[in-house]
Amino acid sequence: MIPHTQILPALITAAPAPGSFVELLGFIAAFCTTVAFVPQLIRVIRLRSARDISLPTFLLFSVGVFLWLLYGIRIGSKPVMASNAATLLLSVSILVLKLRYEALNEVKS
Amino acid sequence: MIPHTQILPALITAAPAPGSFVELLGFIAAFCTTVAFVPQLIRVIRLRSARDISLPTFLLFSVGVFLWLLYGIRIGSKPVMASNAATLLLSVSILVLKLRYEALNEVKS
Fold it and tell me: pTM (2 decimals)?
């Protein structure tokens, strides 16, 4: 029998050593991909428009980030939980504003 | 001396067991957060506009995904490498189109 791992390679093969360069890399990466959505949220609020923003993108992205949050809970990693909880909050906020402005623009036209 | 891990909790505390439910959860999460950017790229191409899309968001997001890619290389995880390489390609494409349409609209006005 072919071991399962040969078909589906492990997502995280090894946990980086605490305090290592690799761990720091992960922290900076998580910080960037989380904080990145702050200017998008500000832009949508400021423009009062989210026309160019894709609804399926933010729907699927929110579902994915929610699953990453569950993943973080299951592996017991606080940074994975925290960064995904923050990203989810930002992503859902953008999604809600997209739906609101879409509805408002439909009433207008 | 306070151990480093007490100040900065480990990013990935434990690698999920190959073939486990947690690993599958990670795969589905990675699939969602990667594929999510396909409809956004299609929308920008179709509308020929990315006005509502935030430039700092896609800049910072691309940097973050690039760092996740390096993280994947360093921990030797093919799924982390593959999903972040795909996300980076999509993110940079959206970024390039944003800059192009911005420049085109400036010429027009």
Answer: 0.86
- For chain B, give the number of residues: 109
Number of Cβ pairs < 8 A linking chain A and chain B = 214
Contact residues for B41 (Cβ-Cβ < 8 A; gap 6+): B90, B93, B94, B97
Q: Exposed/middle/buried for A7, CB within 10 Å: 0-12, 13-18, 19+?
A: exposed
Q: What is the pLDDT along chain A (109 residues), one digit of tens a residue?
A: 445 554 556 776 667 878 888 889 999 999 999 999 999 999 999 999 999 999 999 999 999 999 999 999 998 888 899 999 999 999 999 999 999 998 887 777 6
CA distance A90 to chain B (A): 12
Rounded to the nearest angstrom, the minimum Cα separation between B90 and chain A is: 12
Chain B contacts of A28, Cβ < 8 Å?
A: 64, 67
